[in-house]
Amino acid sequence: MRVIDSHTEGEPTRVVIEGGPPLGNGPLAERRLRFQREFDSFRSFAVNEPRGYDALVGALLCEPVDKTCAAGVIYFNNVGYLGMCGHGTIGLAVTLAHLGRIGPGLHRFETPVGIVGVELRGRNEVTIENVASYRHLADVSVDVAGLGRITGDVAWGGNWFFLAKTTPHALEMANVGALTRAAEAVGKALADAGITGSDGAPVDHIEFFGPAAGPDGNSRNFVLCPGGAYDRSPCGTGTSAKVACLAAGGKLKPGERWVQESIVGSRFEAHYRVDGLGNVIPSLTGRAYVVSEATLLRDANDPFADGLRSDRG
Ligand code: PYC
Questions:
Q1: How far apart are alpha carbons 188 and 206 in whole angstroms?
Q2: Whole-angstrom distance, CA of residue 214 vs CA of residue 83
Q3: 279 lies in a domain?
């Protein structure tokens, strides 16, 4: 398997450019299901130890169905599959430019949850226009073991998010362990209370927000991804969910800038437009850097040939 690794505002992406599973040419959502049902060992092989690590997000490059798209992509991580991935899309654009497959300007990428717009603005800077994002539930309260009552919104930004109104700990790197445990407890409380996305899917990304540290930041976040790793970037789909909640609450106007900082201090600049159907369409700008090109090898005698599965006991 040939891969190219990059990071977007600190969060890693591994693009699989050769040697992925044979998923056919159907719609990307069907191909993702097939990936999950028939070829899940490829996912674990590509991103889990010893070739990868828990924070790594994989991006399987696919032929798009819609020929106006420069690429199709299916995102996955240490435990499963994502709908969209904002930092991954920025990383994919910079990776395709590194390969000479796209140049500066406007492009479209197809994902299992819809087509996203991509503007490559130079070697490293990319703006993506995400799928329509929306607040599904406002001011949901859950009783969380060790934390008490936590209130927040449930929103879609290409994945499902719970956006807590408060943070149980200051948003500093020294608190990553405590924030992770708190976010896991919130995720469990949501699942126990039967709170899901509008399609019944689990709310599997948890966000805490606090004040920005930088002079022009609007907010800092901590985002826990399914699989237990925290997002080093401000999370593209999470920032989209945030923008959708701000729009729904009348707190951010179309075109108004929102600077979202991550727990590591990196940032996405966001805004949104409203389409003809009244949907909130968020845009995010961030920077990605290619860090390695590699061939991943599989030795049939290796007892961990398909990677260590953190989703199984
Ligand atoms: O940037 O959308 C994102 C993302 C999702 C999970 C990790 N990063």
A1: 10
A2: 30
A3: no
Domain that holds residue 8: 2-131+291-312
In angstroms, what CA-CA distances link 270 with 217, 234, 237, 288? Answer: 11, 11, 11, 16
Give me the residues paired with residue 51 across strands: none
d(CA 26, CA 63) in angstroms, rounded, equals 10
Q: Is 237 helix (H, G, I), strand (E, B) or coil?
A: helix
Instruction: Give the burial class of 123: count Cβ atoms within 10 A of its Cβ; 0-12 exposed, 13-18 middle, 19 or more buried.
Output: middle
Verify that 122 and 50 share a domain, yes or no: yes
Q: Is 235 tagged catalytic?
A: yes
**Same domain (yes/no): 173, 267:** yes
Q: Report the domain count for the chain.
A: 2
Q: How do beta strands 258-261 and 219-224 pair?
A: parallel
Q: How far is the CA of 38 from the centre of ligand 1 (A)?
A: 24
Q: Are residues 185 and 205 in the same domain?
A: yes
Ligand 1: distance of its center to the CA of 153 in Å? 18
Q: pLDDT means per 10 residues in the chain (313 residues)?
A: 98 98 97 98 97 98 98 98 97 98 98 98 97 98 96 98 97 98 98 97 98 96 97 98 98 98 98 98 98 97 92 53
Task: Among 74, 77, 206, 231, say which to mutate for ligand 1: greatest number of ligand atoms within 8 Å of CB.
Answer: 231
Shared domain for 157 and 265, answered yes or no, is yes
Same domain flag for 139 and 127: no
Domain membership of residue 283 (yes or no) is no
Indicate whether 65 belongs to any domain. Answer: yes
Q: 64 in a domain, yes or no? A: yes
